[in-house]
Structure prediction request, 639 residues.
Amino acid sequence: MTPPEIPLIELEGITKTFGRGEAAFQALKGVDMRIERGDFVAVMGPSGSGKSTTMNILGCLDVPTSGIFRFRGVEVQALDRDQRSLLRRRYLGFVFQGFNLLARTSAVENVELPLLYRGEKKSERHAAAMRALDQVGLAPWADHTPAELSGGQQQRVAIARALVTQPDVLLADEPTGNLDTERSIEIMQLLTRLNGEGITILMVTHEEEMAAFANTIVRFRDGLVERVERGRRTRREEPA
Amino acid sequence: MFGATLLLAFREIRRHLLRSFLTTLGIIIGVAAVITMVTLGNGVTASIKDQISSLGSNVLIVFPVQGDRGRPRPFKQADVDAVSRQIAGVVDVSGSVSSSVTAFHNGQSWRTTVQGVGNDFLRARSVEVESGRAFTNEEESAGKNMCLIGPKVQKAIFVAGSSPLGENIRLNNVSCTVIAVLKERGEGGGPDQDSDNVVMVPLKMAQRRFTGSDDIQYFVIKYDSAYASTAIQDSLVGLLRERRLLQGAATNDFNIVDTAQVNQALGAATGALTAMVAVIAGISLLVGGIGIMNIMLVSVTERTREIGIRLAIGALAREVQLQFLTEAVVLCCFGGAVGIALAFILSWGMASAIDVPFIFNPVVNVMSFLFSALMGITFGYYPARRASKLDPIDALRHE
Ligand SMILES: Nc1ncnc2c1ncn2[C@@H]1O[C@H](COP(=O)(O)OP(=O)(O)OP(=O)(O)O)[C@@H](O)[C@H]1O
Ligand SMILES: [Mg+2]
Prediction:
């Protein structure tokens, strides 16, 4: 276990520059951030302010140009590609902006995928995937391919896939971006419940209504953290 | 993990069945060509070997050819006798003449070849009788009207089931008593076209009644296997040059053929043919391999998002690489298997069409299959490497 004084996630002076020379563009200009275990964080800010870039770094998909990113006390920017893959595999669940499910592949097989790379046996993979689908209320749709599911259902499959490995942290980049309000609230309720079960959640959203489910709101502007609002959860999970 | 990767590869191929088939066509053709040619080559070689051994081993055939002074000069019986007397190691020697005739019996007629031979000829060429007997020495030296008929002649002019032995047949207008039916030897068998469609009579009788001269068209020599073929040939050349008054630089106006040399020559010919086919098959396989590489690159591009997803949820670069490599190998093995099946059908069909034995060669089949797998590794490596090098974020953004 990580000693309690070490935060789960720590960013210090993170910068990210895309391109070189004339075309170089600094998307992050020195981001500092601390996220404690068990928090539910909403990341907000105008388009182009660097939210996705930050999420990709937090998700160990990308490395900062400079600065320090500590995850459970480990300096991630010093790790190589495969080591970051192993970190993702072990601790992180990622829900992408555009669902990003494998086409022509059933829901349950999509959910099984991360377990495949963990080397788990077929029967265990299947059982765990079914449990995760059940958690998001999609067990009856297990054999449907993404094309046969609604947007909300696809997003829930994506969440099940992120959950199936029982990650410490769930990262979600605009998980409700493509959904109507009703579906979005369903997803938020699901995330709130998962947070209640002990999973730390980081979520990018444009909607104050969805951010209201979070405990902490981090506001971005022009590649910098403008403001952090803590302990302001206004909405609770409502029994369905 | 590997089982799942393999399953995935099969699924991906099934998803694009037609494309997979077309992609592997080069490999299919290459593998099929190699195996078919090797199998047929083996069959042809075996059948030639069979025919050569039916010619008899340690056998030389001597025939006149054009020398420095115009037309070929035929041999005479005196030459044959001289060879028999003067060359050490000669076991059997016999001259031969042949002529086209029509054989008649009981109103049936049949075009065949009458061949004048001695008993030595039958031994040297290992001609065996199915029923009846060979000539007696007396019949041979007197040139009696006796004959040994080939199985095809029997079939053509005798009623099935009746024994031809002791019956008289007519060759053109010469009457002749059948004393034997020859054993079937199959196609070929020497300078005469068909050794089953022949009527053998004593040499003297053939010369008297059919060729009308005491010329000998060629003669065969069987020598003791303790003697080297070259030694026999050398003394033969010396003797014949002397007898034919060839001096100094005059070229030999006769040829000596050793059946073993024919064997070697045929072997060399089939070897050259095999080499040529190997080159063609190699080109076909190379083209096929490039086709595989191309389609794998297309596949990597098509599935960029899938690769991104896999990398993002924690797949290692080498796992993605393994997946695409497995796919290429499975694809190539699939091509190899189809090629082997095709080769089996082709070589079996062609072997029976050209009447050579079908000899299944397990080594070539296994090697071809392994080679296909190797092609998958070779030509799948670069696309797989490229897939594994993709940046997950870029790959996820790919449309
Ligand atoms: N790969 C890249 N190459 C060049 N510029 C990039 C790249 N990725 C992001 N950027 C730029 O960095 C800035 C921040 O992008 P980012 O995607 O983080 O914004 P965001 O806050 O997520 O916006 P949105 O709300 O629209 O998703 C943008 O100006 C974007 O154009
Ligand atoms: Mg974004």
About this structure: The domain at 36-62+83-230 of chain A is CATH 3.40.50.300 (Rossmann fold). The helical segments of chain A are 51-58, 81-91, 107-117, 122-135, 151-163, 181-196, 208-211. DSSP finds seven helices and ten strands in chain A.
